[in-house]
Amino acid sequence: MHFLNYSRVFLIFFGIYIGCFNLLHSQEGFNLPKNQKRDKISFKNINNLVIIPVEVNGTSLSFLLDTGVSSTIIFSLGEKDSLEIRNTKPVKIRGMGDGEVIDAFKSSNNTVKIGDAIDTNHDLYLIFDKALNFSPRMGIPVHGIIGYDFFNSFVVKTNYVSEKIIIYDPDNYRKRRCGGCQDFDMEFHKNKPYIDFTIPSVNSEKNSSHLLLDTGLSDSVWLFDENSYNVEDYFDDFLGLGLSGDIYGKRSKLDILGIGKFSLENVTVAFPKKDAIEAALKHEKRDGSVGGGIIKRFISIIDYQKKTITLKKNKNFKDEFFYNMSGLTLEHNGMKVVKNEKKRVGSSDYSLDGQKFSGRTGNGVSLVTDIELVLAPRFIVADVRKNSPADLAGIVVGTEILKVNGKAAHSYKLYEIAKLFSSKSGKTISLQIQQYGFISKVKFILKKVI
């Protein structure tokens, strides 16, 4: 039985953390149909993460597109998901955190299709541990992660604003003139790209930090040595759920982060505890990771063959950097039956099926209420930061969120609520909750910690 070590970090805004392993392998990779030079693929931008449709052996799934992984991983397959699995052998994976090793399977000779691109000899690593279901924190199904095998096959242009990816056949790609663009070299270690950024040191001098380019990281920046950087104010926080345990650390802000002619101010940063990143420090010489919170501010063109990335500012560039000021981490926990009421103009006061009612208006027109029973997601509190506004308001883990600012919680996408919690200091959040079996209302004000 083969044994693997995980050595990187994947964090999303909702508090998910997963380490991913390094594997050196050979396979032909993805190809576009003959004589096709490019393809456009739509994606969902879920809190700075790129979620793309992927077809595996004829089954439609959703994957995170992640420059920080060197192999394709499948997890979170529910009981209703059917997937043909080919040529498997058992392996073991060790994640970051305090837990034990995890059983997995390596599967070879799979057919994977993304847009018009197809790979007929693709290796997959499958994790069946039900605890490793990250979809609840995302609010949408996410079945796996794909990275190097995809990026190494094409020149990949990503636009977070339009939520479109264009992939180009590298043999036919011709770079166009681009006003405002700047090219940067990428250095590769074990199939993963690294770029140098400038971050103020403890002496307030600009120094170079070697960071993993990590589209699977929702945060802006993770740094591994808090003592090397000029940051003063921190707050402790739960950073994510790991393959082998919870990850905790500190959050703060950097005065400035630069790359070439681009400069960003008051950038959110996280410093994970050392025990969570021991594997990364042992196997990779890097200072941290730069994630979607930064990358979403650019149109990027990534060329693995030439080891370059081209960046151009987009309309997100000047957006202020926020973190979750509520202290709440929510997750999608099952479904519930709710009533949807719709009013329409009608003529009858009462329907035969007992589901339609009306009231006469002053001009004699009847308003009929149609009542429809539908399934809706339940949003449950998965974590509460100590001394946060939500904590001080009395909200605890396991509380169900029923309404947010007067609207039914299920009328939001989960990431929309998370975005609301990160919106503006001083904003009042009103919640209707079910806690300890009782329904009540609570209010708190979003407040900056630093």
From TrEMBL:
Keyword Membrane among UniProt keywords: yes
InterPro entries: Aspartic_peptidase_AS, PDZ, PDZ_6, PDZ_sf, Peptidase_A2_cat, Peptidase_aspartic_dom_sf, Retropepsin-like_bacterial
PROSITE patterns named in the record: ASP_PROT_RETROV (PS50175), ASP_PROTEASE (PS00141)
A GO molecular-function descriptor: peptidase activity
Protein name: Aspartyl protease family protein
Gene3D superfamilies hit by this protein: 2.30.42.10, Acid Proteases (2.40.70.10)
Organism the protein comes from: Jejudonia soesokkakensis
Pfam families in UniProt: Asp_protease_2, PDZ_6
Domain Peptidase A2: 61-97
